[in-house]
Amino acid sequence: MAIPSFSAFHDEGINLEGLLEILSPENNLVLADDMMVSDGNGIILRVSETYEKNFGFAHDSIVGKSAFDLEADGTFTPCITAEVIRRRKKISATQTINHTHKNVMTVGIPLFDANGELKYAVCFNTVSMEQINSIQRNYRRMQDSLQHYSQEIAELRTRATSTNLLFKSAPMQRLWTLMQNTANTRANILITGETGAGKSIILGAIGLLLGQRADIKAIKKGANKCIVEARFNISAYQMEPFFTQRDLEYDPDECIIRRELYASGKSRAFINDTPASLAQMKELGEKLIDVHSQHQNLLLNSEGFQLNVLDILAQDDNELSAYKDIYTEYRNVCKQLADFITQAEQSRKDEDYIRFQLEQLDDANLQEGEQTELEQEAETLNHAEEIKAGLYKVDQIMASEDASLLSATKECMQTLHNIARVYTRAQEWIGRLDSCYIELKDLSHEIAGAQEEVEFNPTRLDYVNERLNLIYSLQQKHHVQTIEELIAVQTDYHEKLNAITSFDDRIAELTAQKETLYDKVIKQAAVLTKLRSQSGKHIERQMQSLLVPLGMPNVRFVVELNPRKEPDSKGMDSVTFLFSANKNGTLQNVASVASGGEIARVMLSLKAMIAGAVKLPTIIFDEIDTGVSGSIAEKMALIMQEMGKQNRQVISITHLPQIAARGITHYKVYKEDTETGTNSHIRRLTDEERVKEIANMLSGATLTEAALNNAKALISG
């Protein structure tokens, strides 16, 4: 059916006000040429060619269908055409085309005739949600870039005016400009603030983005919800396979993760504006952020953490994955074998019982349908005299010489024959009586024969009763109701007995399979051990080079790798990090002998090594400088600064001025009292404010000239 033209709309007296409003140039709504038209009952009359192309609909698959059916089968959610017809008014909403997973802003217009009857529903698709989201992301990136460039220009101006270098040639000018543009990056971010100001709130928010359990305490009193959103530049991390495998929208430049927490306790997760599960968010978060909180220092005592460090630096993902596959198969076979042995032992204990029960059932020689036949025969034998007397009486009535049914029927037939020549209808009755006569005669013979068959036989009755008693006894014993169920029990016993005899063969087969897989596990574990040994030597050398500048001139760090008695899910290796900070000191477990400050330095060094092996856009340190100060803190800051130069963002939450001074971008967290309560804020500090903040960290609340000069010296440092 063709769509009516505008002239046809006019001829039918259709009110075009709503449609013309949408098409008005003054309307800011951006329309695509995607259009769908239905009649007043929701039958689709036409869709535009562009509609078919953009959303993958064949013309015949949608034209002629009911909009209500398309809504019911999930083609559209919701179906705006159906909504317009139900509500008889203009509808603007997001419509999801489910088979393409596209979200489109759609406007639906009802068209009425002169009598107010709904004649048509016209739907336009405006700009897709994907386009809107892309525009928003591009706008945000542009804003961020403009801010970034403004900051760089300001820095370059400062540097240009303060430099003592003199150059004249154009090549040197270009070289100097290049040096100025690349000498400083915005990878290192510092967050400072008084204890209790709210720095932990930031970590809590990031925890929500990592898929941690939501707590409604995170919502400010009086608010309905809280929203946490983070944007990551992922252009250098080749993460497209992750998004493709999980059917998530992929942007090669930017990834946006958002968590919405409601006062009702519910929460929603989004990845690039696409709804996602918390498991997906957690999995993605592990690829984007590494948060080192204070309690993580305790992980040094964890063998699992130590082994994980070895594997990360060994880059043995493929070998470890191959080992886990073999080990999983090995454990499955071990479980099957153990279950089979347990089953065999139990079955052997039950073997005599099974054989006894089976012999009883076999001796009974049960037959399907036998019970019903025996019960019927018993009824007959018990009432033989009664049955025989009844049959005799019937036989006498039908076939006795005096006034029997057969004689009477035959006499009737003869009489009808006599009048048939003068009464034509008699001929028909003769035929019917003849049929009755033949049937009665046959029936009379059967009844007479049955009299001979029915005899009271006490011997046979005793046999039938004994047989039935045996069947009833077996049914009661095995808790069944029919002889067919007894036969099923008998079959099951046969199968169990056969299984018992085959247990040894199956156990031998599984044992051989287990031994073969064990050899493979040991062989693959040896590959892991070799890689881990090499990684351990590398860690020892690296830790020595990192810890000595951190105030440990006599440090010894040893990775001790010992074989396990039996393999586990991660191999045959047991690892221990041994540590001694003192000259000629005894090597002991790092967590048991290292002080708080030493553990902080060890953890930072390990994180620095891991950061070089694992591509993570963001690393967050929450007061990793606990227990250190002075020059050591400054050297730790240099390590974090070097990590920031490896194309990643390093965020450090600190109370130490030495570390704060080494940051590039400085944020301050502070509290502010208002009439409605106390609020926590965070803001970026200007260069001047940064000097004052570091000076405050050095001298306290009272700013002195000396503190300001020290702060400037630290920053320029």
Set down the secondary structure blueprint.
Layout (H helix, E strand, L loop, with lengths): L5 H6 L5 H7 L7 E9 L4 E4 L1 H7 L3 H4 L4 H6 L3 E2 L2 H8 L3 E7 L4 E11 L5 E11 H34 L7 H13 L5 E5 L6 H11 L15 E9 L6 H6 L8 E9 L4 E5 L2 E3 L1 H11 E4 L10 H12 L2 H48 L5 H13 L1 H16 L5 H15 L5 H29 L4 H20 L5 H65 L8 E13 L2 E10 L7 E2 H4 L2 H18 L4 E5 L7 H15 L4 E5 L3 H4 L4 E10 L2 E8 L2 H13 L5 H12 L1
Parallel strand pairs: 7-17, 7-18, 12-16, 16-17
Antiparallel strand pairs: 1-2, 1-6, 3-4, 4-5, 5-6, 8-9, 9-10, 10-11, 13-14, 14-15, 18-19
Fraction in helix = 55-70%
Oligomer: single chain
Report the total helices. Answer: 25
**SS-derived structural category:** alpha+beta
Rounded to the nearest angstrom, the radius of gyration is: 46 Å
CATH superfamily of the domain at 185-292 and 615-684: P-loop containing nucleotide triphosphate hydrolases
**Can you tell me the CATH class of the domain at 185-292 and 615-684?**
Alpha Beta
Low-confidence stretches: 24-31, 160-169, 174-187
Q: Spatial order of the strands in the main sheet?
A: 2-1-6-5-4-3
Give the name of the CATH architecture of the domain at 185-292 and 615-684.
Answer: 3-Layer(aba) Sandwich
Biggest beta-sheet profile: 6 strands, antiparallel
What is the 3D form? Answer: elongated
User: How many β-strands, per DSSP?
Assistant: 19
Beta-strand fraction estimate: 15-25%
Average pLDDT taken over every residue: 78
